[in-house]
Design brief:
Blueprint lengths: L10 E3 L5 E2 L5 E2 L3 E3 L5 E6 L8 E2 L1 H4 L2 E11 L4 E11 L3 E3 L4 E4 L4 E2 L3 E3 L4 E5 L13 E2 L5 E8 L5 E11 L31 E5 L5 E6 L8 E2 L2 E2 L6 E5 L8 E2 L1
Parallel strand pairs: 2-8, 10-16
Antiparallel strand pairs: 1-4, 3-6, 5-7, 7-8, 9-12, 11-14, 13-15, 15-16, 17-18, 17-21, 19-20, 21-22
Length: about 250
């Protein structure tokens, strides 16, 4: 009998570095056939396609075995294997959005979990500590804070929280509704930031001449479509925010 001895491919798969779960999918190309024999190589294992596209999230955290199999055109095969570690992405929450009265402070409700995580808040503006999960903040204008957590494995995650600063209303003590286009309405600056505000105006006899739930319209000095006489009127503004007093004058 005649025995035909075909050459076997010689295959190597270089070591694969550990990756974090949140890393986007990437191509593994460390598998090689180093004798030059013609053939085709394919990858197999958790989270990897035959062409070598590895997705850490699909693989899930843990240690996985990647195999590179080379099939020569003569039908002979060989393979090489390497482990790859996938580190878990830490969890993070910057907490719910907050509403803050101008001049005060609130505590952000950040949290996270993971392998030896470290916290970092940005930007470092009106915040008492950027490295604790529940810092106190006292911004003067609306701001979005970003909380980033980093594990000992170098894996990261982040979340955002919006802080809406309610400015102290600026209440004018006079206006001139004479139709000249200048100062014709009683406009209270910053009051429209208070969603549930209640505005009431009375004449000197205590009769209501204007009322607005919310601040979608400005008083133009009229009552039932008729101009009211010049004089002193009284307002009561309830911002409907816990801890605030009614504004009167």
């Amino acid at each position: 009998q005649t025995i035909t001895l075909s050459a076997s491919p010689q295959v190597a798969l270089n070591p694969l570095g550990a990756v974090c779960e949140e890393v986007p999918g990437f191509v593994v190309n460390q598998g090689k056939e180093f004798t030059g024999i013609a053939g085709t190589g394919v990858y197999s294992g958790d989270g990897i396609t035959a062409t070598g596209l590895f997705d850490p999230r699909q693989a899930t955290p843990g240690t996985h075995t990647i195999r590179y199999t080379y099939t020569a055109t003569n039908g002979c095969t060989a393979f090489a294997e390497q482990p790859i570690a996938v580190y878990a992405q830490p969890t993070v929450s910057a907490g719910p959005d907050k509403v803050l009265l101008e001049g005060g402070f609130i505590t952000l409700d950040g949290s996270g979990s993971g392998n030896g995580i470290a916290y970092l808040w940005t930007p470092n503006i009106n915040i008492d500590s950027t490295k604790v999960p529940v810092p106190k903040v006292s911004p003067t204008t609306d701001i979005t804070y970003n909380l980033t957590v980093t594990s000992e494995d170098g894996c990261v995650n982040s979340d955002l929280v919006f802080v809406h600063v309610l400015k102290t209303p600026v209440i004018p003590n006079a206006f001139s509704p004479n139709g000249d286009g200048i100062n014709d309405t009683w406009v209270i600056q910053y009051l429209n930031s208070y969603t549930n505000v209640d505005v009431a105006i009375f004449n000197r006899y205590g009769q209501s001449v204007f009322h607005s739930a919310g601040y979608s319209k400005y008083w133009d000095g009229t009552y039932n479509g008729k101009a009211l006489p010049a004089g002193t009127y009284y307002y009561v503004i309830d911002r409907k925010i816990e801890g605030t007093k009614k504004l009167t004058g």
